[in-house]
Amino acid sequence: MAGMSDSEVQGQIAHMIAFIDQEASEKVEEIDAKAEEEFNLEKGRLVQTARAKIMDHYDKKIKQVELQKKIQQSNLLNSSRLQILKRKEELLNDLLDDARKTAYKMASEDPSRYRDTMIKLTMQALVQLLEPKVTVQVRQQDLDLMRKIVPEVQDQYKKFTQKLEVKLTIDEQNFLPADLIGGVILSAHGDKIKINNTLNERLKLVSSKMQPELRETLFGPNPNRKFRD
Question: Name one GO cellular component term (predicted).
């Protein structure tokens, strides 16, 4: 630096140093600002990711709780329905038991009515068979009654069919169980054709046909039933 005094040289150097310091300071500030910005962006991303994970975790927990609640409600509802159905069946069975008791009382305590019933049951079975030779089974306690009504039944059958005759033979070796309410079992062609017309069987048939009507009478129409007879 010819022609410059020492003081001028020193001033020039100081000016250059100040400029360099200024540039360095600005660069540092720029780096700090960029680092701060990147830090804030990364912090925001991490916070957002953590928040999303937390929300997802609690969403799953809420769904699990809701599912468990629905399962419990469904179990309670099913349990209540089963209890209601059980009670309905108990009431229906009570009604059928009353019907059995009434029939048994008629058979054991009302001879005149039971006699008419035995004639009707035998006639119904004969008309279903339409065979000339038929064997009839009864309870042992009904044997005397059956012996008395056989001629009357044969006459009624002939009148009802207008021309057909039937030979009705009582099986006095094989009686129906004594605990049956009563009634008859008729067979033909060596037991190849058989009609069970006992009072127990009739009650069973009637109860199976009447149960839907009894349910509706006792408990009202079934809302889930789409079609009606």
Answer: proton-transporting two-sector ATPase complex, catalytic domain
For the stretch 27-81, pLDDT in tens is 888 888 888 888 888 888 888 888 888 888 888 888 888 888 889 888 888 888 8
Between CA 183 and CA 142 the distance in angstroms is 9
Do residues 188 and 134 lie in contact, with contact meaning Cβ atoms separated by under 8 Å? yes
Of 93, 109, 125, the one marking the end of a domain is 109
Q: Give the three-state DSSP class for 33.
A: helix
Residue in the block written with tokens 């004969």: 126
**Distance between CA 220 and CA 55 in Å, rounded?**
49
Q: What end-to-end distance do the CA atoms of the chain give, in Å?
A: 123
Q: How far apart are CA 222 and CA 175, in angstroms?
A: 44
pLDDT tier, 218 (very low <50, low <70, confident <90, very high otherwise): low
45 and 37 Cβ atoms separated by less than 8 Å: no
- Answer with the one of 109, 144, 177 that is the final residue of a domain: 109
Structural domain includes residue 225: no
Is pLDDT above 70 for 219?
Answer: no
In angstroms, the CA 58 to CA 185 distance is: 72
